[in-house]
Amino acid sequence: MKQDMIVVLDMGSTRNTDVARAIRSLGVYSEICNFDVTADELNAMPNVRGVVANGGPNDVVDGKKIALSEEVKKSGLPVYTFDYAENGRMNKMPESDQEIAEALRSFVFDTCKAAANWNMENFIADQVELMRRRIGDKKVLLALSGGVDSSVVAALLLKAVGEQLTCVHVNHGLLRKGEPEQVVKVFKDEMKANLVYVDATDRFLNKLAGVADPEQKRKIIGAEFIRVFEEEARKLDGIEFLAQGTIYPDIVESGTKTAKMVKSHHNVGGLPEDLQFALVEPLKMLFKDEVRACGVALGLPDAMVYRQPFPGPGLGVRCLGAITRDRLEALRESDAILREEFAANGLEGKVWQYFTVVPDFKSVGVRDNARCYDWPVIIRAVNTVDAMTAEVPEIPFAILRKITDRILSEVKGINRVCFDLSPKPTATIEWE
């Protein structure tokens, strides 16, 4: 990477991503590192101009209060402290990202002499050069879900290595209604990508049978994905790399030394130790809004770039608890109704993400003048910029009522519809 960098040291703060994003908003690249980074590690990172020591309530590790290390001090890099006492000085954390950026502006540009050269054009040029150099004449497999992350990775790889890329779309039985057909149409028929379609529905659902723990489900799905790719790779010659749409929130939420894990992401915590490929993850340091900006810069159509996100484990983390085929089908149908009504009522581009959840318990209802015992459906809708925090938008009651009426009348096994009003934090966007 040719861009200048400011390192954010996680000294126990809950707002590391706020600081990193604020610095990037100034046009300067920033990464989050653990508090115990060594001087050699700092000096090995490209173009580091300064360090922000970002303290907070999680500043005790293994029973000891952490402090700015001698390693950082002897690195010779300028250090700025947030909410962290050092030599009797403390800087309190501002509230908004804009205030954080303003507080750091003088440090970043005047003290560190960093250049404002962080932008998508430079990022794309860097990644294309790095991938060409690393991949050489070898071949790459890409896990292509059809979502924005994997689509942007595909565009980057096509730009970098062209026909050396093979895209594999795995239907694990946990996709939304009509999605496998749409992915094949867009990428194989329209974009002319080298696409392999694998229907592994039974394989995945058999592996997940009886598994209720969310973390175990994510890891099973992640591991099985890799096995499918390994099998497909053996059918091809020269495959040495596996590309993934891992993004920065996936890594941050999978835990650091001072921050507790929010959840394992299938492409971070779920990867098997005996992985047979070298990973290619060109987006792993980008936040979600930066991924979209990258897609726009690459010339991808808006319909693809601004498509609402979909988790790697798919409906597997929305069919709560142990997955059953009948409940999964109720989830798929209710989600399709929700998406149809949001599109019909002009909410498709106004709400960042919306989906349904079906829990693994039933409630008493009345159907055809008789008692019924069926599942509830929970509607989840959120707005966010970077997927690290999220708010619940106001949805007109008339729209919610129509969605409810359709779900109750059209979806087998559902007798109740609920609406989730919880922001992130304290809730996460997904239920599992």
UniProtKB/TrEMBL annotation:
Transmembrane segments: none annotated. Its EC number is 6.3.5.2. Residues 118-307 form the GMPS ATP-PPase domain. ATP binds at S145, G146, G147, V148, D149, S150, S151. InterPro entries: Class_I_gatase-like (IPR029062), GATASE (IPR017926), GMP_synth_C (IPR001674), GMPS_ATP_PPase_dom (IPR025777), NAD/GMP_synthase (IPR022310), Rossmann-like_a/b/a_fold (IPR014729). It comes from the Bacteria. Pathway: Purine metabolism; GMP biosynthesis; GMP from XMP (L-Gln route): step 1/1. The keyword Disulfide bond does not apply. Catalyzes the synthesis of GMP from XMP. This is GMP synthase (glutamine-hydrolyzing). The lineage of its organism: Bacteria, Bacillati, Bacillota, Clostridia, Christensenellales. The gene is guaA.
